[in-house]
Design a protein that fits this description.
alpha+beta; Alpha-Beta Plaits; four-stranded antiparallel sheet; 3 helices; 39% helix
């Protein structure tokens, strides 16, 4: 089992133990402030009716993207994180 698989299995267990689904979940990502990168993050949530908040860093090089969204289960949360990993330079918090 690789490290990513182990990480996501541990995350799934924690999510299932600490949430009653469906429930609101807060995703937080940091990306470079390029419009394309921010749009890629937003596109992960365009079908979910999410509330998205963007905050630029002090020097404007990076943008924090916070997303409040109702998620059906832990697997759906993990699938978002897996898709987010495909965005170059993204940091998941």
């Amino acid at each position: 089992m690789d490290n990513r698989t182990a990480f996501y299995e541990k995350l799934k267990k924690k999510l299932d133990e600490s949430n009653i689904f469906p429930s609101e979940y807060l995703f937080k990502f940091i990306v470079s402030s390029e419009e394309e990168k921010i749009k890629q993050v937003e596109d992960l949530f365009d079908f979910k009716g999410a509330i998205i908040t963007k905050t630029a860093s002090k020097k404007g090089k990076f943008t924090s993207v916070s997303i409040h969204v109702i998620m059906k289960n832990a697997d759906d949360i993990i699938s978002i994180y897996v898709e987010a990993e495909k965005i170059e330079g993204i940091i998941s918090l």
